[in-house]
Structures are given as structure tokens and as C-alpha cells.
Amino acid sequence: MLELTPLPIFDDNYIWVLHDHRRALAVDPGLAAPLERFLAGRGLQLDALLVTHHHHDHTGGLAELVAAHPGIPVYGPARIPEVNRVLAGGETINVLDLSVDVLAVPGHTLDHLAYYGAPWLFCGDTLFGAGCGRLFEGSPAQMYASLSKLAALPPETLVCCTHEYTLSNLKFARAVEPDNIATQDRDDADRAKRAQGQPTLPSTIALERATNPFLRCSEATVIAAASARHANGADPVSVLAAIRSWKDHF
Active site includes 125? Predict the structure, then answer.
């Protein structure tokens, strides 16, 4: 039986740790020390590292971890120096006896990857709770295609993104769709979780489809909101571009 833990680091990042009570894999280790303490406290051996993209808050602990665990497989994009198992999307890897599909999801960065090993989706900064990542390198069309790929996963898929941005994203989602009852209900539930010191994550693909405006770019309510923000058209890519620009200045 595999167990998943969101390990908080920095102000709002998570290192996701999946383990079988003996071996562990960690996703996007921005810091080494908190992960090492977690592993030592539970008597776990670090078996593999997965990296979604090159930003420092996702990779900052890699050098120290690779030095401390010689030979450990580090899966990720080619531009990350510590990666020794280079991936580009379309591969299937096996970690902790779990079959994991590697998905190319450009948008936030051009070589961003996501990892889907049912029921878990490790999606870095592509899909957030009620939001999506900024377009630092990719285009709205790339981000729309990437989000559509993730939205097509089974509804029960657990969305394990790397930032605790859900409440601020829900504030924006309610501005986009003020009459969306599912978004209002999620906002109430997630505020209660945070008040108790609990993470809002993982969410599910079903919940994101119902409440995340970036997965709802074909909905009339989201199209209308984008039109009010001077979207170039009513097609989903134009809608996503308009609401992403709006969110950047929200």
C-alpha cells in the first residue's frame, strides 16, 4: 500500500513524497533538508526523484540529494543538470513498482512534464488547485492543450500540484464565475481546511473540471467573462489567454 504525503517547504511549496513504508520517491525537491528529515523520521530509503521543470523552487535540493544518495535515478527534463534519466513525454517509467506515464505539458515552461501513476497526478506548476501556471515560456495554445490532456484523465485522479495557491485561485475563479455553486462550496471547504492547518491538496480532476476556470474555457459563463476582458474570440485558446492575462494582474 502506497502512502502519499505533501511535505511543505518555503512559503507555499510542497515536495510530494510517495512511499511503501520502506522505499520513497519524491517529486520536485526544492530543498533537501526537510525531505531528509522526513525520510529519516520514518525509516525510508529514497528510491527515486521526479522533477517536473527547471525552476529553482522545484530543483534546489537536487544537488545535495544526489550527493547524499549516489546513483539515485533522477527523472526529468534534459536542461536540469542533476537529471540522469532524461524524459520528454510519452515514456512510461516504473517507480516503487508503480507504472507512471510521463506527459509533456508545455505552457509554464516549454519542457514541463507531468507524471501520472493512477490515481496520482504530479503536475508541478501546470495545473493548480482552481488555477494554472503563468505562461513564462509557452503559449496560450500550448497551455490549453496541456490542460486539456490533464482534464481528460479519469475524474478520480488525485491532482498533486506543487503550490498551495488554492484559496487565491478560488478568489479569482469566483470573479470569473460568481454564480458557480461548486466553486463557492469548494471555497468554503478549502478555507475550513486551511483554518485547521490542512492542505487543500490533492484535489481531483472532477473537482477541477467543476471549479477551475482554466479547464472551463468552453463554458458560456467563462466565455462571457473573457469577452468582458476583451478576449480576441470565443474559442477556448482565446478565452484562456484572456483569463490568464486577467489572473496575472488580479
Answer: yes
